[in-house]
C-alpha cells in the first residue's frame, strides 16, 4: 500500500508540471531500484529517477550502521547491494538521457541521537561486532524537490566519507564477483 501511494504521487506531479513521462514498476533492468522508475522529459532532455520503497508496519525500528553495512541481498537497507545496482544501471546503457538520482524511500528513521532538524546526523556507533567503531553521517537536504517533497518528510544524503569506507570497498569487490 505504501508503494502504491508513491506510485500515484509521481504521475500526479508529472501531470501537474505538464511533463511527458513514463512510469515503470518492478522493472527488472532497474535491479534493486525496481519499485518505481520515472522517466520524464524536462526542458527537452530525458530524465530518469530510480526509487526503492521500504515500509515497515507497526513499531518502527531505527536504521542502524549495521543495517547499512550488511553485505548481500538480504538487508533492506544494505548499501552494498544498492551500490552494485547503481553501478550496473549506470553501465548498462539502457537508460538514455540524464539519471537524476537513486532514492530509497522509507517510513523509518536513522538511529541517531541528533534531531531530524539537525543539518548533519551521526548514526550511533555499534558497541560490538564487525561494525564496531564505524561512523556514518547523513546530511539533511533542504533544497526543493518537485517529486519528493511530501508532508513533513525529511530527505538525506550520505556524507562523502561513506565512499571511502574500507568495508564498502571490500564488500563491493566480493559481491561484484558473484
Write the SSE topology:
Elements lengths: L1 H15 L3 E5 L11 E7 L2 E10 L10 H4 L10 H14 L5 E9 L13 E3 L14 E5 L13 E4 L7 H11 L2
Helix pairs in contact: 3-4
Keywords summarizing the entry:
178 residues; alpha+beta; 7 strands; three-stranded antiparallel beta sheet; four-stranded mixed beta sheet
Helix content: 10-25%
- Count of folded domains: 1
Q: How much of the sequence is in beta strands?
A: 15-25%
Q: Indicate the overall shape.
A: globular
Helix/strand-derived category reads alpha+beta
Count every helix, treating DSSP H or I runs of 4 or more residues as helices.
Answer: 4
Q: How far apart are the termini? A: 33 Å
Descriptive overview:
With 178 residues, the protein is of the alpha+beta class. The longest helix has 15 residues, at 2-16. A hairpin with a 2-residue loop joins strand 2 and strand 3 (45-54). It has a four-stranded mixed β-sheet, with helices on one face. A three-stranded antiparallel β-sheet has the order 5-6-7, with no helix packed on it. It has one domain (2-176). The mean pLDDT is 87. Helix content is 25%, strand content 24%. Helix 3 crosses helix 4. The chain contains four helices and seven strands, in the order H-E-E-E-H-H-E-E-E-E-H.
In summary, what is this structure?
The chain has 178 residues and is of the alpha+beta class.
Amino acid at each position: 500500500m505504501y508503494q502504491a501511494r508513491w506510485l500515484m504521487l509521481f504521475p500526479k506531479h508529472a501531470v501537474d508540471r505538464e511533463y511527458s513521462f513514463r512510469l515503470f514498476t518492478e522493472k527488472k533492468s532497474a535491479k534493486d531500484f525496481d519499485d518505481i522508475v520515472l522517466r520524464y522529459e524536462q526542458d527537452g532532455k530525458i530524465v530518469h529517477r530510480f526509487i526503492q520503497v521500504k515500509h515497515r508496519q507497526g513499531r518502527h525500528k531505527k536504521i542502524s550502521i549495521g543495517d547499512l553495512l550488511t553485505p548481500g541481498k538480504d538487508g533492506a537497507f544494505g548499501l552494498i547491494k544498492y551500490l552494485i545496482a547503481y553501478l550496473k544501471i549506470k553501465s548498462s546503457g539502457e537508460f538514455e538521457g540524464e539519471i537524476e538520482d537513486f532514492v530509497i524511500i522509507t517510513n523509518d528513521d536513522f538511529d541517531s541521537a541528533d534531531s531530524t532538524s539537525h543539518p548533519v546526523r551521526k548514526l550511533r556507533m555499534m558497541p560490538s561486532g564487525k561494525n564496531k567503531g564505524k561512523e556514518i553521517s547523513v546530511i539533511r537536504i533542504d533544497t526543493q524537490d518537485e517529486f519528493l517533497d511530501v508532508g513533513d518528510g525529511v530527505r538525506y544524503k550520505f556524507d562523502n566519507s561513506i565512499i571511502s569506507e574500507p568495508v564498502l570497498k571490500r564488500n563491493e569487490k566480493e559481491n561484484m564477483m558473484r
